[in-house]
Amino acid sequence: MEHPIMDDLSIDCVIFGFTDELKVLLVKHAEGISKGKWALPGGWITYDESLDTAADRILKLLTGVDNLFLEQLKAFGAVDRFPGKRVVTVAYYTLIRDADYDLVAGFTASDVQWFSINELPELPYDHRDILQYAWDQLKIKVKQEPIGFNLLPKKFTLLQLQNLYESILQIKLDKPNFRRKMLGMKLLIDCDEKQDNVSHRAAKLFRFDEEVYRSLKEHKFVLDW
Predict the structure, then answer these.
(1) Domain co-membership, 180 together with 134
(2) Which CATH number covers residue 105?
(3) Mean pLDDT score of the chain, rounded to an integer?
């Protein structure tokens, strides 16, 4: 027996992905007033489930992606955000390595794809505002705790780490300054290795110190670029 839905309360998920650039996961609606449009993965909550459970269920049904740590962002409740009636949506967001997930469109989605943050299609409702708010929060977050543990290879170059930060912040960082700050945090361990099979000058490889990484995530810090 299906549980009744709450058609005045919904969930929307902003799933950021990174492999070589920052991306956003979007679904194409197969029905309803936004049929044929790309949108954030979202849907109605049922009366018998929590917000977190609804977010997990909806994301898996629409995209095939599951087992994510979704952080609740905020509620969006502008009177005119949804045509025809008052609907409040609770937004969630996360950042994952997109190459690690297989996408399968389902439920009310006819397609699901990753889009570059800089090449997004027109989005319905207030999804552009939700996405921008999530991105702004992500920018704040990367200045207050380390990122990259699950986004970069186990061994990576400082240039790869810098590219991750630049993709999220959408700014060009000074290379010497970035290296000095990252190495000064004692977060990185020199692997005493260099890249192989590259046409350019091989760069040194580093890995994260897991203990320092956990400590910095717990106690926070402020990076001023």
Answers:
(1) no
(2) 3.90.79.10
(3) 94
